[in-house]
Amino acid sequence: MAESGQAPAVQRDKPWIFRTYAGHSTARESNKLYRQNLAKGQTGLSIAFDLPTQTGLDSDHPLAKGEVGKVGVAVSHLGDMRTLFENIPIAAMNTSMTINATAPWLMALYIAAADEQGAPRTALQGTTQNDIIKEYLARGSYVFPPDPSLRLTKDLILFCARETPKWNPMNVCSYHLQEAGATPVQELSYALATAIAVLDRVGASREVDEADFAEVVSRMSFFVNAGMRFVTELAKMRAFVALWDEITRDRYGVKDPAKRRFRYGVQVNSLGLTEQQPENNAYRILIEMLSVVLSRDARARAVQLPAWNEALGLPRPFDQQWSLRLQQIMAYETDLLEFGDIFDGSKEIATLVETLKAEALTEIAAIDAMGGAVKAIETGALKAKLVESNMRRLEAIERGEQIVVGVNAFTNSESSPLTAGENSIMVPSKDAEAEQIELLKAWRAARDEARVREAIRALRTAAAAGAGANIMPASIEAAKAGVTTGEWGDALRAEFGEFRAPTGVSSRARQEAAGLDDLRGEVQRVSVKLGRRLRFVIGKPGLDGHSNGAEQIAARATDAGMDVVYDGIRFTPAEIVERARSGAHCIGLSILSGSHVALTEEVLRALRSAGLSDVPVVVGGIIPPADADTLRAAGVAAVYTPKDYEINEMLGEIVAEVEQRYDSGKQAARAS
Predict the structure, then answer these.
(1) Catalytic residue among 236, 357, 540, 596
(2) Cα→Cα distances 134→180, 190, 377, Å
């Protein structure tokens, strides 16, 4: 019996894994950050890689300019991976790597580093995201066409089943679907359709028997999103659990309930974080986290939270610590882990779960009827649905039907001391890119070139062999031989080719779009003055694949009557300027990778060289005020950030800028 005044001992569940998504500039700097976070009580690593690494390019590739170390750490070879885990025991670590198109390569580097540390492969624990399907839909970090990409996914899954049985070789990622505007039903159905496509590919390979296939199923994990509609998000997670159990049992015949368990990690929604009154984001993050930890039967296995100021720029170590402490307080100071599922028996929850399940199964059946998830990607059907869902969400905010505190309601605000001062956000070192390139050159100079050539030859042979060979053994040998990320990517590009996914943006205006009469009138009036329809070229320079904003601007500008040129992601500044030669009246650049200054200045230089300096350029992205001033000083007509959510207003300003430039040009011509 407990002594008077003391609470009785209570059996508590083990907490979920505490993570923060982190990585920047060089491996050396990221290693320092990781060790700091682990010392603060973080129990797993979640590695963010920069865009060149994600897309299979070396840091000195022309497309990598301005992108090195911006949205994550640059890992160009085994030396970088070795440095990333210096004084961090890989065998004792649970590591999540957000990597997709190049997942086999980064896993090969990780295994090579583990081998160097003497860590048994059977001891490795963690996850490679390795979900290429959602990259075509929502995030844009794909490289190869869908079919060979799915082959690489399958290869990594089968290799890990044999060599690293504690590793999750795939993390079906619905997180970015919600960031792209997916409804709960779309997030459920598209993620499960992705898992079905992958499992069908593994089964069709005939490389596993029934028992091994069940093991493959048991190592499939998910990475989901949790938004602000707390009750619906909680029910969505319970629906995920039930649907996965039913699909793996009925469609794939997995008999053991333990192998059918839905295991997932989560990062809560970043899409809803606001630049206005950013301190409110701390509450949003807490509320969103509750939906994935309160329900014991659908509780996340790992949680990583964004920082309150991510809509402003790169979070500082303190900001990441604040989000980590939120998890620790929830796990250790509350009694949450002492009880069973507190929602069992709730009629409201049960009804909502069944509704979500039924609607998701209907959508999965529709995807099956299209020929499966891959075919639905190639036709652009799923992408178009996501663009439309995001369109409806934004229009509801603009009309005030969906309240966002501090944005379209309760906008009177005190100035926040949290955002004051020069160091309110983290700014990556300007020298990091040059440092990384010098390290890369030194690495190439020191390696055995004959061994490198042989490793690349073996890699291409494995890629060309198709289903007859697994890409992983050759990739691990290439890693140990000193092959670089770009060389691995080039070897596979040579065999597989590259791919450009459909944009999902219709070239036809929606006639039902509301609130556009005044804007359409202005577009028509100015177009008559110009002598032809106002042409708006929208470009995404560099490697940034987050195209949601560009898609919405392109769709609304089309609805407003503009002649819109938008071809998707990953164009060089020169390619964007080439599109402007076709009579552009304005160029809009969308850059969310942090490389907005370097890439925009390159576009402006190319426009001057082409004799198009009179064409106004506007830029959108997560752009700190100091960078916005730099861009305007360089000649940019306007800068838009997440606080500028009224698209019609933005487009109206663009139309006015085009007219003003036209009138000024006519006056200058008359004066000369």
Answers:
(1) 540
(2) 10, 8, 9
Told to judge if 176 belongs to the known catalytic residues of this protein, a careful annotator would answer: yes
Tokens of 80: 């970088």
What does the alpha-carbon distance between residue 284 and residue 227 come to, in Å, rounded to a whole number?
9
d(CA 296, CA 631): 49
- What are residue 338's DSSP bridge partners? none
Put the strands of the sheet holding 125-128 in their side by side order. Answer: 21-22, 45-48, 94-98, 125-128, 167-168
Q: Please say if the pLDDT value at position 271 is more than 90.
A: no
pLDDT at 192 over 70: yes
- Do 309 and 444 form a contact (C-beta atoms < 8 A)? no
Per-residue model confidence as pLDDT tens digits over 127-158: 999 999 999 999 899 999 999 999 999 999 99
The per-residue pLDDT for 1 is 42
Spot the catalytic one: 70, 546, 585, 596.
546
Q: How far apart are alpha carbons 99 and 35 in whole angstroms?
A: 21
Model pLDDT, residue 512: 65
Query: b vs e for 111-135, b when ≥16 Cβ sit within 10 Å of the residue's Cβ?
Result: bbbbeeeebebeebbbbbbbbbbbb
* Per-position DSSP letters for 74-126, written without gaps between them: ---SHHHHHHHTTTS-GGG-EEEEE--TTHHHHHHHHHHHHHHHT--GGG-EE
Q: Residue 311 has what pLDDT?
A: 87
**Active-site residue, 540 included:** yes
24 assigned to active site: no
Q: What percent of the chain has pLDDT over 70?
A: 98
The per-residue pLDDT for range 291-327, each reduced to its tens digit, is: 999 999 999 999 999 999 988 887 888 998 999 999 9
Sign of CA dihedral 499, 193, 189, 228: negative
**546 part of the active site:** yes
Catalytic residue among 110, 175, 264, 640: 175
**Going by DSSP bridges, is the β-strand pair 45-48/21-22 parallel, antiparallel, or unpaired?**
parallel
| % pLDDT > 90, the chain | 83
